[in-house]
Amino acid sequence: MGNMAISKSGFLGFSSVEKEFISKVKTELVEQPLAFEEVLTEPDIIHLPAPVRKYIAYTGAIGKSKPQNVRIEFAAQMTSKPGAEPMEATSVQYNFYGDFTRLFFMKASKLLIPFRILHAYIDRKATMVVRVASLFNAVDVAGEELTAAETVTLLNDMCVFAPGSLFHKQLSWQEIDDLSARATLENGNYKVSAVLYFNEAGELINFISEDRYALQDDGTQKKVKWSTPIGNYQEIDGRKIPFSGATIWHYPEGDFTYGKFVLKDIKYNVREYIESRG
C-alpha cells in the first residue's frame, strides 16, 4: 500500500479512480462485444436443481435474452467497523459473462471527506483501491486472497442479479433440499462456492459463502463467513429483481452488517458506457 504504489490495476500516483473505472469499462465493452442474442429456454436449465429452476422461472428470465453483461446502480450505506456511523454512498458496476469481469465503482463521503472505491476483476486477477479526498490510497490491494474473495462476489452477482446466467458452463450445482442448493464457480485456479436459500414463492432470500476473505485493519485478509440477505422483489422490463439487500460478515464475536443496498437501476446487455445518475 501507499499513495505512489503501482498496483496490478494500473494506478500511478494520484490518477483519477473514476477515470480508471470508465476506461476499463469501455475497454471491456470493446473486447467483449455483444454476441448474437440467444433466448434462455427451459432446456438450458434442465440440469439445475429444482429450487434454482423455480427461482429462474420466478424472475422471468426464461424467454428473455441470456445475460452477456449487466450494469447495476445502487444507493448504499456503508459502515467501516462495528459501531461506526454509516457513510452514504452510490455505486455503479458492470459485469461481463463471457470472460468473467467485474468492475465496481463507489462514491462515498464521511464528515465531508470524499472516498472513491474501485474493485476490478479482470483476467482472473482482482484489485481494490480506496482513494481518500483525491490525495492518497488508503487501500491498494491485489493478490490471490482478494481474487478468491472477488470470485465469490462475482458468483453472488450472478445469483442475485443475473439468474439467466446460472446455466453457465463454469458453474456446478448440488441440490440440498426443496429450498436450498449449493453453487460452485470455477474460474482459472479459483474455485468458490455458496449455499443459496429460497422461499416457497421461489425467491432467492439469502446467499452464504465460507470462501470470502475480509480485509483486516493490519492489511491482512481473513476468511470469514459472508452472507447477503435480499428481498423486496420488484419488476423491471418483465424481470423480477430484489431491490434491497445487505452484506454481512459473520465473525466469531458477532455479525457485522457493513453494507445496506437499494437498487436504483439495472440494464442487461448494454452496448456502450452509460453515465451514472448518482
Keyphrases for this structure?
single chain, 278 residues, alpha+beta, outer membrane lipoprotein receptor (LolB), chain A, 14-stranded antiparallel β-sheet, 16 strands
Secondary structure blueprint with pairings:
Layout: H1 17-31, H2 50-59, E1 69-78, E2 87-96, E3 101-110, E4 113-122, E5 125-132, E6 136-142, H3 144-161, E7 171-177, E8 180-187, E9 190-198, E10 204-209, E11 213-215, E12 221-223, E13 225-227, E14 230-236, E15 239-251, E16 254-268
Antiparallel strand pairs: 1-2, 1-16, 2-3, 3-4, 4-5, 5-6, 7-8, 8-9, 9-10, 10-13, 11-12, 13-15, 14-15, 15-16
Polypeptide structure, described:
The protein is an alpha+beta fold. The chain has a single domain, classed as outer membrane lipoprotein receptor (LolB), chain A, CATH 2.50.20. It contains three helices and 16 strands. It has helices at residues 17-31, 50-59, 144-161; strands at residues 69-78, 87-96, 101-110, 113-122, 125-132, 136-142, 171-177, 180-187, 190-198, 204-209, 213-215, 221-223, 225-227, 230-236, 239-251, 254-268. Strands 1, 2, 3, 4, 5, 6, 7, 8, 9, 10, 13, 14, 15 and 16 form a 14-stranded antiparallel β-sheet that branches. The two termini are 29 Å apart.
Quick structural overview:
The protein is α+β, with helices and mostly antiparallel strands.
> Could you say which overall geometry the principal axes of the C-alpha atoms support?
globular
Helical content stands at 10-25%
Number of helices: 3
Number of strands: 16
Radius of gyration: 18 Å
Order of helical and strand elements: HHEEEEEEHEEEEEEEEEE
The end-to-end distance, rounded to whole angstroms, is 29 Å
Q: According to CATH, what is the class?
A: Mainly Beta
Low-confidence stretches: 1-14
Average pLDDT across residues? Answer: 91
User: How can the largest sheet be summarized?
Assistant: 14 strands, antiparallel
- How many domains make up the coordinates? 1
Proportion of strand residues: over 45%
